[in-house]
Amino acid sequence: MKTSHEKIEFLEKLADGITSWIGSISSLIIHTLLFLTSFLLPVFGVVDFDKMLLVLTTVLSLEAIYLSILIQMSVNKSHEKIEDIQEDIEEISEDIEDIQEDLEEISEDIEEISEDLEEISEDIDEIQEDIEEINDDEDDDEDHNERAKNVMLKSNVSSNKNEIKLLKDKIQELQDKLDGLKSE
């Protein structure tokens, strides 16, 4: 047995089908043929003209009542769909605003990281200069282990410089992508 929800769905589909058919060429043709037939019946003496007008008026009145109800159902359904679409548009607009805020925050973070990297790079340069000064000041009799430590320090500084350069390049790439997203 059908539930009330299934019955309502069936009636809505039926109403949509009737409304669609009423607005079609075949409906226009059938209604025209029925009207012509109705007016020809009294001409051929099959029915009295007054009875034909009474029946035709009654049928057309009932049809008009049902059509107005069916059309109002379609209008209501369309209105509900439009409201749903408007809600979706509002949600999408809010999401876009959130994304723009996030992009701005990311941009600020990238700028801060870039500044920090520049400071670190400057610090590394200073450390490297200090190491070079230490090397220049050392006597020729310097312990072999000390030299090895200094060479390792220079190597680490150089390695850190390369890593910082890679980070700067990556940050620039992210900044370019972020600018591209902002322009979209």
Order of helices and strands: HHHH
Number of helices: 4
How would you classify the helix and strand content by structural class? mainly alpha
Q: Are there runs of 5+ residues with pLDDT below 50, and where?
A: none
The major sheet is characterized as: none
Number of strands: 0
Spatial separation of the terminal alpha carbons: 55 Å
Mean pLDDT: 83
Rg: 42 Å
Question: Percentage of helical residues?
Answer: over 70%
- Globular, elongated, flat, extended or rod-shaped: what is the shape? rod-shaped
Strand content: under 5%
Mind explaining what this structure looks like?
The protein has 184 residues and is mostly helical. It is 91% helix and 0% strand. It has four helices and no strands. It has helices spanning 4-22, 25-43, 49-137, 144-183. Helix 1 (4-22) packs across helix 3 (49-137) and helix 2 runs antiparallel to helix 3. The longest helix is centred in the middle third of the chain and has 89 residues, at 49-137. The chain is rod-shaped and about 135 Å long. The mean pLDDT is 83.
Give me a quick take on this structure.
91% of the residues lie in helices and 0% in strands. By secondary structure, the chain is mostly helical.
Write the layout of secondary structure elements.
Layout: H1 4-22, H2 25-43, H3 49-137, H4 144-183
Helix pairs in contact: 1-3, 2-3, 3-4
